[in-house]
Amino acid sequence: MFDIEEELKNLPDQPGVYIMHDESDTVIYVGKAKILKNRVRQYFQNSANHTPKVKAMVSNISYFEYIVTDSETEALVLECNLIKKYRPKYNILLKDDKQYPYIKISMNEEWPRIFMTRTLKKDGGKYFGPYMGTNTIKNTIEIIQKIFNPPSCNKVFPRDIGKGRPCLNYHIKKCFAPCTGNISNEDYRKIFNDIAEFLEGDHKKLLKDFEERMKEASKNLEFEKAASLRDRIRAIKSIDEKQKIINSDKQTDMDIIAAARDEDKTFAEVFFIRSGKLCGRENYRINETEELTDSEIITIFVKQFYQNSSFIPEEIVTQYEINDGDAITQWLTETKGKKVTITYPRRGEKVKLVEMAFKNARIALNNYNINKMRMEDKKAAAYNAKEILGLDKEVKTIECYDISNISGSSNVASMVVFENGKPVRSRYRKFKIKSFEGADDYRAMQEVIYRRLNEAREETEKIEKGEITLKEAKFLPLPDVIFVDGGKGHIAAAQEMLEMTDTQIPVFGMVKDDRHRTRGLLSPDGEIGLNPTSAFFHMITRMQDEVHRTAITYHRNLRGKITSELDSIRGVGEKRRNELITHFKTVEYIKKASFEELMNVKGMDKKTAENIIKYFKKED
User: Which of 55, 142, 448, 620 is the most exposed place for a label (fewest CB within 10 A)?
Assistant: First the structure.
């Protein structure tokens, strides 16, 4: 039995890390202390001064343990590692810090590659980041592709050298094609070292090296190599010219950190200044900061951010003075292997940079809150559906259907899915109507509803047999409500199929006004009055627009395939192509048509009819 009172008496007066556990042995908090005895005892004394969060944590502590270290700096490093390992409930964590992606150059491999990764490993590779999202990484890799032309294919070197012809990227000068064997391993690695220097922001050194190599290549009459280096120099200089100059005298590497907060969350903004130029920025969300001071938030962010960062600058400029400044500075200096300073400016140019970072952090916070409000409105609209539609149960999932055809040809249907007011595009489905030709929206609606329900039935049987899991199913679970784009006829058509398959799902019609704008919802008993300014009405409008857009896009794609195929036949122009589609409805019927049937098409001549028959006979 762990006696907290007795263990508190035995705490040493040395630096170290303390680890709090609950009754299930789960680590709920990790902290570091300059003097363990003083820090840990504070949790169990003077509870009136504790914040609600600390009180909640202390009430859940079943026992604690500690690790003594030689210095506060060692304690700081150990604290960071343990927080990352256990991700304790009561520690403030960067929101989803493990999700931030990095750019990796696998210099540990004989033939390196460049790619995105979300896992940091001590494997000899070079990592750059973390980046806020994949779009930033994609844009960066695109720039690298334009300047350095590294291979972007899936070939493995040296295994695939000399196998097959080089791809299109080589011919349009977007790859130097190591697969052809025209580059040595030494030169190949040199290019990837150049890419690493480019990502580190050391453009001045890189440009100087390129210029020397260009002169050497020209001297040796290697004009193609010299031209390639010249193009890289121009591209990098063009990028540098677009970057904001920050401190042209010192040309230092520096990170600027500021934070904007509201009641329970904070957004931290980091500006990356390399060689005196602002070359990038990222922002990060930190949750549950309501009980922390500004200095505590910045301190927590600095510790976690630089534990995960692949690069530590010479200087870190913060909006507020950080706690444990000496220990953190020493830790970062030892990690970098070079002196690192942390400054808290009161005046001058650095204050302006901090203000600029703060302004961006505040924008990120405002945008997050706006998006959150929008999501809450959508959820509220979905939750109100039960009351508005007069249903017995809550409405979480809604499926919407629309039919599309032009002159009765190429009938298609779309199914879009909304959950809690948000579209779930992975569950969208498209259907090509198979049972008939011609314009009949009701019959088309019946076919698509039947097919959708039948797919769900078959998947249910496969799940029961253990052939697939629910996660693998494409038509499960069934929706709470079905919306069809149309009136009473469309509702009746859908209901008939539901009754036939003994499926209980309410159906409503999304109706439009004379100007083809959303008017409201129609039930089997009549139209449901909706407030046009309500969140629910806006959700219905979006659903109607989304399902219509999906159906039209699918229909156009199908018609485009038909059009492109007919355009390949000699003698078939735009006018004759339209006549063929109007007459036969689908390309399948055109393929099967006899010479006499083709001659019945308006404007058709003997030679073109023969060309059509020859074309499809050759295709078969």
Answer: 620
